C-alpha cells in the first residue's frame, strides 16, 4: 500500500532525538576504549538479559499481545537465534588486529563504525534489538533503536533490560538507547543523524534508509520458494516446507510461499503437504482467500498477515479443521496479475507444477523471482549435486538452502554455516548494497596496514598470454617498425 507523506517531527520528538544522540556520542567515546575481553563480557551480559527462557517468554507474550501478530511457540524458538549471534560474535576478533596475511604483508585492525540507527520491525520487536546489540557492542558501536509503533512497548522493555545489564557491568547504559516517540519522521531523522543504518522492514523503509544520506544496510523483499526435482524425498521436503511456513505464522520473508514441483510429482507433493498438516483449499476457497489477502489493485492487506490458518480461513469466509497447520492452494500461474506466486507473509503456500525437465523448471523459477523476491533466497530439494550446482549457477538469489527449511536455515542455523543474523542483504537484485547475511563484519570499520613484500610482478607473457606481442613493447620505435 502506498505510504502517505511523512509528517514533520514534533518539538517533543526533536528534543528527544537531540538528547539521545548527545548521550550516544558520549557513550561511544567510552566504549571505543574497551578491550576485547571487556566487550566479550558485555555481549554475554546483554544476551543473557533477554535470551533466558523466563524473560524471553515474557517478551514474546508481550509482543504478540501488543501487535496481534505471530505464534507463541515458534517465536519462543527465536531465542536460539540470539544464542547463535552470540556464538558467532564470540568466535571473531573485533578489537585491534582482526586478521593477518603474512604472505601479502597485510594486517587488519577492527574499528567502530560509530552510532548505528536501527529500525525495528513489528514482527521481531525483541530479537532484532538483541541481535543488533550483540554485534554492535562487539564492534564497540552504540545503537539508537527506532521501534515500530505497533510493538513499541516490547522493544522498549527489551532495550531496558539490556541497558540494565550494561549498567550492572559498569558500562554506560546509553550504549543502547530507544526513542519513546516513534514515527516515520522520527525513524528518518535517526537514519539521517547516524553513522550507519541497519533497516529491517518493508521496501519503503529500506528506500528511506538508502536515501537518508547515511551508509545503510537494508534488506530486499522475500518470496522464498522451494524447488523440487525428480530426486527429492517428498516426505522430507514437505516437512521442511511445513517448518518454514508455520514458523511465527509465516511472518518472515524467508517463510516458504511457493513450491515448484515436476508435473509428474505434483499430486504426490500435494498429498505429502497434507500429511504434514496442510489444508488443500478448493478452487472456490482459493478465490475467497485471494479476496481476503489482496485488494482489487493487488496490494497485500495487513489484516491477514501472520495469522493462524484457521483465522485466515475465517477471514475468507470458510472454516478448516483445528489440526491444520497451514493452507495450500494450487498455483494459478506466474505473472504480475497472479497474486498467489507473490510473497504471502502468512500461513499459506502455493504449489505450482512445471512441465518438462529440470532445466525447464529452473526457467519457471527464474520467472517467478522476476515477479517477486529476486535476490533474497530459495531452497532446493534434490540429491543430485549436478542439479544443485546448475541451480546455484542460474538462480538470481543470495542464498540457497539444500534440503533445509528456509526460514529456519538461511539466516543462520546451528546445523549450517550461514552467519547468524536477522537481516539478510539481497544484493543489487533486491536493491541492496550487500548480498550477505548482515553480521559482525558489517558493524566494523577496518584499517589495513601494509608492509613491503618481495616483488610480485608476473611477466607480460604470463599476464597477457596469447595476446602478448613483444614487438609492440620494444623501446625503439624503429625496431618495432622493422619487425
UniProtKB/TrEMBL annotation:
Keyword ATP-binding: no
Single GO MF annotation: oxidoreductase activity, acting on the aldehyde or oxo group of donors, NAD or NADP as acceptor
Lineage top rank: taxon: Bacteria
Domain (Aldehyde dehydrogenase) ranges: 13-276
InterPro entries given in the database record: Ald_DH/histidinol_DH, Ald_DH_C, Ald_DH_N, Aldehyde_DH_dom
One Pfam family from the record: Aldedh
Keywords for the protein's UniProt record, in alphabetical order: Oxidoreductase
PANTHER family: ALDEHYDE DEHYDROGENASE-RELATED
Protein name as it appears in the record: Aldehyde dehydrogenase family protein
